[in-house]
Amino acid sequence: QQDYQTSIAANVSAKEAFEKICHVNEWWTGNFEGSAKKTNDIFTVRFGETFVTFRIADAIHDEIIVWLVTDCHLHSFSDKTEWKGTKIVFEISEHGNSTEIDMTHVGLTPETECYESCEKGWDFFVKQSLYKLITTAKGLPDTPKALR
Predict the structure, then answer these.
(1) Cα–Cα distance between 30 and 44 in angstroms, integer?
(2) What share of the chain is helix, strand, coil (3-state, %, to 5)?
(3) What digits encode the pLDDT tens for the residues 95-141?
(4) Which DSSP state fits 37?
(5) CA pair distance 29, 108, nearest whole angstrom
(6) Are 52 and 72 in contact (CB under 8 A)?
């Protein structure tokens, strides 16, 4: 059982990377409610009929952020709550002038119904949108038409 995982690296500090990850509305979706900055913050993201609510289970500045899915409705799939109880983990490590972000969606495995489309989504939002936000201060939030 292999959880979805991806990594990006950029010539920024771990502090900058941490702060940009917390600006969910600037790289994932503008349809964002709540706060995603510190432990126990709660936030919800929406994509049309789909929504996911998270509680930040852990946030150690410049090192790690763990989002726990507390509720969800994935409208396109037979198991609408497939993400509930899964965790999105961002591990941040600085190496000289570069910072690496390793993102793992614990519980999102090839056996899950949404894996293929969720993999495409995470690939876009982490590798392109979050990377662009970190390196140019302008992400690409919301679902691109190619993924709808």
Answers:
(1) 11
(2) 25, 35, 35
(3) 999 999 999 999 999 999 999 999 999 999 999 999 999 999 999 99
(4) S
(5) 20
(6) yes
Which string of b and e fits 42-74 if b means at least 16 CB within 10 Å? Answer: ebbbebeebbbbbbbeebeeeeebbbbbeebeb
Please give the DSSP secondary-structure letter assigned to residue 42: E
User: Residues 6 or more apart from 125 whose CB is under 8 A from it?
Assistant: 27, 28, 140
- Nearest in space to 10 (alpha carbons), one of 101, 141, 129: 101
- Residue 97's alpha-carbon distances to 10, 12, 133, 140, in angstroms, are 8, 7, 18, 25
Contact predicate 91/102, CB 8 Å: yes
Stretch (H or E) spanning 131: helix 131-136
3-state secondary structure of 83: coil
Q: What is the largest CA-CA distance in the chain?
A: 46
Predicted TM-score of the model (pTM):
0.94
pLDDT tens for 25-35 read: 999 998 999 99
